[in-house]
Amino acid sequence: MNLVKLAAAALVAAGGATAALAADIKPAVVYDMGGKFDKSFNEGVYTGVKKFTNETGVAVMEFEVTSETQREQALRRMAERGATIILGVGFAQADAIAKVAAEFPDTEFAIIDVTWLDAPNIRQYGFKENEGSYLMGVAAAMASKTGKVGFVGGMDIPLIRHFACGYVQGVKATKPGDEVFQNMTGSTPAAWNDPAKGAELAQSQMDRGADVIYHAAGGTGVGVIRAAADAGKLAIGVDSNQNGMAPGHVLTSMLKRVDVAAYETFKDAAAGEFETGVRVLGAAEGGVDWALDDNNAELITPEIKAAIEEAKAKIISGEIKVASYYDTESCPVN
Predict the structure, then answer these.
(1) Where does residue 4 rank: exposed (0-12), middle (13-18), buried (19+ CB within 10 A)?
(2) Does some domain include residue 333?
(3) What's the pLDDT tens digit per position in 192-243?
(4) By CB count within 10 A, which of 60, 198, 243, 270 is most buried?
(5) Domain count along the chain
(6) Do residues 151 and 235 both lie within one domain?
């Protein structure tokens, strides 16, 4: 057999091995409140799941949580149905996934926005949202004409204060005299899916002079974006690229690459390369970034783009160290 035939045979064998591994996997995902089409966090995960299915042809079992009591039930049901790798979406599933993972030690699990579980069969993903939000603060300060910008969070929890803290740092580093208004939507999971309240909070900030408003509020953020667009102001999206939700009125979006975490989880499992432990993704790891496309190209001046890219490069190099809310449960600037 000549070298060409040997190479072809090797490729066929490798392809067959990959297909065999993919055939052995039975993946599942449990989306959280808001559902996989929330145009934000859950939908970012769905994008990664869809990419995996499109590439491998492997269907992914899924469930969309609509009440808090469903989380543990859904995870357990997936394990009982023979899922080999189960992805939980969001910190709210931490207790449930820890319990179910202990009941099914031979099943692989992964969870996004959780880094504190002690379990041998769980991969955990954390993100440096403060770094991505810092870039949004730079953009907001550069774009604002009033020197007043806003932030609307979803549920009032440390994670969202982590977003807010990075944003304020970016604003103040760019324009120290600028004012930042901050509001949280609520203290229960319902705060993630209340567009009407998001619009109300955004309007209250605009009434006080804010002309750029960043949200980290899941489905509630849809209301923030609509209100800003209706008022002729600018919004900043989060998690997924939300620039297209109101072209010309979304300055940019903070990309939290939960799609990468989802895709990587299932791809590694399919290849037999799944490893547990904690993975934290920041700017240097490509875990957070900003969005530039046809929907916001006219809003991003060369000066704004240069400022964002400079800040990003300095964060990656370590020249800029963005303080974490988690370190002291407070923000050094406000």
Answers:
(1) exposed
(2) no
(3) 989 999 999 999 999 999 999 999 999 899 999 999 999 999 999 999 899 9
(4) 198
(5) 2
(6) yes
Quote the crossing angle between the two packed helices 258-270 and 41-56, to the nearest 10°. 30
How many CA atoms are closer than 13 Å to the CA of 34, on its beta-carbon side? 30
Could you give phi then psi for residue 278, rounded to 5 degrees? -105, 135
Q: Please check whether residue 183 is in contact with residue 153, taking contact to mean a CB–CB distance below 8 angstroms.
A: yes
For residues 168 and 293, membership in a common domain is answered with yes
**Using CA atoms, how far apart are residues 242 and 251, in angstroms rounded to an integer?**
10
Flag whether 334 is in a domain: no
| Cα 319 → chain centroid | 25
Residues 323 and 270 in one domain: no
**Predicted structure pTM score:** 0.85
Q: What confidence tens digit (pLDDT) does each residue in 58-93 have?
A: 999 999 999 889 999 999 999 999 999 999 999 999
Q: Cα–Cα distance between 26 and 319 in angstroms, integer?
A: 44
* Cα 163 from Cα 166, distance rounded (Å): 5
DSSP 184: E
* Same-domain status, 232 and 204: yes
Shared domain check, 54 and 153: no
Residue with the two structure tokens 């996934």: 97
Same domain, 208 and 313: yes
Q: In what order do the strands lie in the sheet with 122-127?
A: 61-64, 27-31, 85-89, 108-112, 122-127, 277-281
- Any idea what the CATH number is for the domain that residue 183 is in? 3.40.50.2300
Which residue stretches of the chain are H helix?
Answer: 3-24, 41-56, 70-80, 94-103, 129-143, 158-174, 195-207, 221-230, 258-270, 302-317, 325-328
